[in-house]
Amino acid sequence: MPTTDLSVLLLNCTLKHAPEASSCQLIAEQLLGGFAGHGLEGDIVRVVDVDVAPGVDADMGDGDEWPGLRERILASDILVVCTPTWLGHMSSVAQRVLERLDAELSATDDAGRPILFGRVAVTAVLGNEDGAHKITADLHQALNDVGFTMPAQGGTYWNGAAMEKTDYKDLPETPEPVAQANATLVRNAVHLAGLLAERPYPATPGS
Predict the structure, then answer these.
(1) What is the pTM of this model?
(2) What is the pLDDT of residues 96-128, one digit of tens each?
(3) Residue 200 three-state SS
(4) CA distance 34 to 52
(5) C-alpha angle 79/28/17, rounded to 5°?
(6) Residue 69 and residue 74: Cα distance in Å, rounded?
(7) What is the bridge-based pairing of β-strands 7-12 and 155-159?
(8) 3-state class percentages of the chain: helix first, strand second, coil last, to nearest 5
(9) NADPH-dependent FMN reductase-like domain location, by residue (predicted)?
(10) How do residues 149-192 score in pLDDT, each as one tens digit?
(11) How far apart are CA 58 and CA 116, in angstroms?
(12) Domains of the chain
């Protein structure tokens, strides 16, 4: 695969601290491998291990480590948000990421565009109960609101059978539909990010 100048950052929004095994970590690693196959460099951040303060400002003051993570998000062309399902909802860690991204609504570039307009976002949702479609919808709406662009089929997921305890990380192999969804997500995200890099959104009139 050809090398590109694009980069990707994957946010693992598990509730489990490293080095505890995490299904979100597994799918993040699978997706990172897919992006690497397209020539992209990237990293995975386990957000629960970063001191992200509650709030909706870019910097919440002493001890808040969000500003450093924010810089990494802004330096990346593609953002991947991976979250488990708890009680039918995304994790509280994922929700906090969205709340902190809310601050970017007031940040603009030199052309007057919201600062996140040139970046692509995709999602991965895991759990052993249903809820992935609802969580994906919530994530995509919020990420779009703050300025990210989502590609076609830019969400991958896996749900185990209801009332059972099997986790994604415990499967003997990745189910073929999930592997296909992962590959489509990666392929379309790279394609869209390349298009946005070549042809940015128009400048805000009067800026």
Answers:
(1) 0.95
(2) 999 999 999 999 999 999 999 999 999 999 998
(3) coil
(4) 28
(5) 105
(6) 9
(7) unpaired
(8) 40, 20, 40
(9) 8-151
(10) 999 999 999 999 888 889 999 999 999 999 999 999 999 999 99
(11) 13
(12) 7-198 (3.40.50.360)
